[in-house]
Design goal:
9 helices, 4% strand
Length: 160
Protein backbone atom coordinates (compact mmCIF):
# COMPACT_ATOMS: atom_id res chain seq x y z
CA UNK A 1 0.00 0.00 0.00
CA UNK A 2 1.42 3.37 -0.93
CA UNK A 3 0.62 6.33 1.24
CA UNK A 4 1.27 9.99 0.71
CA UNK A 5 3.33 11.93 3.23
CA UNK A 6 0.08 13.22 4.71
CA UNK A 7 -1.22 9.65 5.12
CA UNK A 8 2.03 8.57 6.75
CA UNK A 9 1.93 11.59 9.04
CA UNK A 10 -1.63 10.83 10.13
CA UNK A 11 -0.78 7.16 10.73
CA UNK A 12 2.25 8.19 12.78
CA UNK A 13 0.33 10.73 14.85
CA UNK A 14 -2.54 8.31 15.51
CA UNK A 15 -0.05 5.62 16.54
CA UNK A 16 1.70 7.99 18.97
CA UNK A 17 -1.58 9.33 20.39
CA UNK A 18 -3.01 5.85 20.96
CA UNK A 19 0.31 4.71 22.36
CA UNK A 20 0.41 7.60 24.80
CA UNK A 21 -3.16 6.85 25.90
CA UNK A 22 -2.22 3.27 26.80
CA UNK A 23 1.22 4.13 28.18
CA UNK A 24 -0.10 6.81 30.50
CA UNK A 25 -2.96 4.58 31.69
CA UNK A 26 -0.55 1.74 32.48
CA UNK A 27 2.07 3.93 34.13
CA UNK A 28 -0.49 5.71 36.32
CA UNK A 29 -2.13 2.41 37.29
CA UNK A 30 1.24 0.93 38.26
CA UNK A 31 2.35 4.10 40.07
CA UNK A 32 -0.90 4.53 41.98
CA UNK A 33 -1.31 0.79 42.64
CA UNK A 34 -4.68 0.82 40.87
CA UNK A 35 -7.10 -1.91 41.96
CA UNK A 36 -9.27 -3.32 39.18
CA UNK A 37 -11.74 -4.76 41.71
CA UNK A 38 -13.38 -1.36 42.20
CA UNK A 39 -13.91 -1.04 38.46
CA UNK A 40 -15.06 -4.64 37.98
CA UNK A 41 -17.49 -4.64 40.89
CA UNK A 42 -19.33 -1.59 39.50
CA UNK A 43 -19.92 -2.99 36.03
CA UNK A 44 -23.60 -3.00 35.08
CA UNK A 45 -23.74 -4.90 31.79
CA UNK A 46 -22.50 -8.50 31.98
CA UNK A 47 -21.80 -8.06 35.69
CA UNK A 48 -21.71 -11.82 36.30
CA UNK A 49 -19.05 -12.24 33.62
CA UNK A 50 -16.88 -9.35 34.82
CA UNK A 51 -17.20 -10.37 38.48
CA UNK A 52 -15.26 -13.55 37.68
CA UNK A 53 -12.16 -11.38 37.17
CA UNK A 54 -12.73 -9.63 40.52
CA UNK A 55 -12.71 -12.82 42.62
CA UNK A 56 -9.89 -12.89 45.18
CA UNK A 57 -8.09 -15.82 43.52
CA UNK A 58 -8.16 -14.19 40.07
CA UNK A 59 -7.81 -10.51 40.99
CA UNK A 60 -3.99 -10.40 41.28
CA UNK A 61 -3.71 -11.81 37.74
CA UNK A 62 -6.34 -9.38 36.47
CA UNK A 63 -4.53 -6.45 38.11
CA UNK A 64 -1.20 -7.50 36.64
CA UNK A 65 -2.59 -8.02 33.13
CA UNK A 66 -4.50 -4.74 33.08
CA UNK A 67 -1.66 -2.56 34.39
CA UNK A 68 1.20 -4.12 32.47
CA UNK A 69 -0.98 -4.76 29.42
CA UNK A 70 -1.75 -1.05 29.13
CA UNK A 71 1.91 -0.18 29.59
CA UNK A 72 3.20 -2.72 27.03
CA UNK A 73 0.56 -1.83 24.44
CA UNK A 74 1.53 1.81 24.85
CA UNK A 75 5.25 1.08 24.48
CA UNK A 76 4.56 -1.05 21.42
CA UNK A 77 2.49 1.62 19.72
CA UNK A 78 4.87 4.47 20.53
CA UNK A 79 7.94 2.55 19.37
CA UNK A 80 6.15 0.97 16.43
CA UNK A 81 7.40 -2.46 17.48
CA UNK A 82 5.08 -5.48 17.30
CA UNK A 83 2.03 -3.36 16.48
CA UNK A 84 0.39 -6.42 14.91
CA UNK A 85 0.73 -8.20 18.24
CA UNK A 86 -0.25 -5.41 20.63
CA UNK A 87 -3.06 -4.02 18.45
CA UNK A 88 -5.53 -6.88 18.94
CA UNK A 89 -4.95 -6.75 22.70
CA UNK A 90 -5.67 -3.02 22.64
CA UNK A 91 -8.86 -3.66 20.67
CA UNK A 92 -9.89 -6.36 23.14
CA UNK A 93 -9.37 -3.98 26.07
CA UNK A 94 -11.35 -1.20 24.40
CA UNK A 95 -14.27 -3.49 23.53
CA UNK A 96 -14.21 -4.89 27.07
CA UNK A 97 -14.33 -1.37 28.55
CA UNK A 98 -17.10 -0.42 26.14
CA UNK A 99 -19.33 -3.24 27.37
CA UNK A 100 -18.34 -2.67 30.99
CA UNK A 101 -19.60 0.94 30.84
CA UNK A 102 -22.80 0.13 28.99
CA UNK A 103 -26.30 0.71 30.33
CA UNK A 104 -27.90 -0.18 27.03
CA UNK A 105 -28.41 1.83 24.88
CA UNK A 106 -26.36 4.43 26.76
CA UNK A 107 -22.68 4.34 27.55
CA UNK A 108 -21.49 6.00 30.77
CA UNK A 109 -24.57 7.56 32.35
CA UNK A 110 -26.52 8.79 29.28
CA UNK A 111 -23.49 10.71 28.02
CA UNK A 112 -23.19 8.65 24.83
CA UNK A 113 -25.86 6.86 22.84
CA UNK A 114 -24.49 3.49 21.57
CA UNK A 115 -21.05 4.89 20.71
CA UNK A 116 -18.30 6.17 22.97
CA UNK A 117 -14.58 6.77 22.77
CA UNK A 118 -13.76 3.11 23.44
CA UNK A 119 -15.25 2.17 20.08
CA UNK A 120 -13.43 5.06 18.42
CA UNK A 121 -10.12 3.94 19.95
CA UNK A 122 -10.73 0.33 18.87
CA UNK A 123 -11.44 1.53 15.33
CA UNK A 124 -8.27 3.63 15.29
CA UNK A 125 -6.26 0.58 16.35
CA UNK A 126 -7.85 -1.49 13.56
CA UNK A 127 -6.81 1.27 11.15
CA UNK A 128 -3.26 1.24 12.51
CA UNK A 129 -2.98 -2.53 12.08
CA UNK A 130 -4.45 -2.42 8.57
CA UNK A 131 -2.02 0.29 7.51
CA UNK A 132 1.03 -1.37 9.04
CA UNK A 133 1.58 1.56 11.37
CA UNK A 134 4.75 0.06 12.81
CA UNK A 135 6.39 0.56 9.44
CA UNK A 136 5.68 4.29 9.46
CA UNK A 137 8.68 5.70 11.31
CA UNK A 138 8.55 2.72 13.67
CA UNK A 139 10.68 -0.24 14.64
CA UNK A 140 8.59 -2.86 12.80
CA UNK A 141 9.95 -1.59 9.49
CA UNK A 142 13.50 -1.66 10.81
CA UNK A 143 13.20 -5.17 12.23
CA UNK A 144 11.66 -6.43 9.00
CA UNK A 145 14.67 -5.12 7.04
CA UNK A 146 17.17 -6.75 9.38
CA UNK A 147 18.51 -10.18 8.57
CA UNK A 148 16.82 -11.42 11.74
CA UNK A 149 13.58 -11.93 9.86
CA UNK A 150 15.50 -13.99 7.28
CA UNK A 151 17.13 -16.13 9.94
CA UNK A 152 13.96 -16.43 12.04
CA UNK A 153 11.00 -16.57 9.64
CA UNK A 154 8.57 -16.81 12.56
CA UNK A 155 9.31 -13.15 13.34
CA UNK A 156 8.10 -11.98 9.93
CA UNK A 157 4.34 -12.11 10.64
CA UNK A 158 4.86 -10.31 13.94
CA UNK A 159 6.42 -7.25 12.34
CA UNK A 160 5.18 -7.61 8.74
Amino acid sequence: MTESNLDRGIIFVLRILMGWTFLYAGASQIWENFDTAGFLNHVVTFHRFFSIFAQPAVLPVTDFLVKWGHLLIGLSLISGLLVRVSGPFGILLMITYYFAHMKFPYIEENVNFLVDYHLVYATVIVYLIAHRAGHVWGLDGLVERLRLSDEYPLLRPLVG
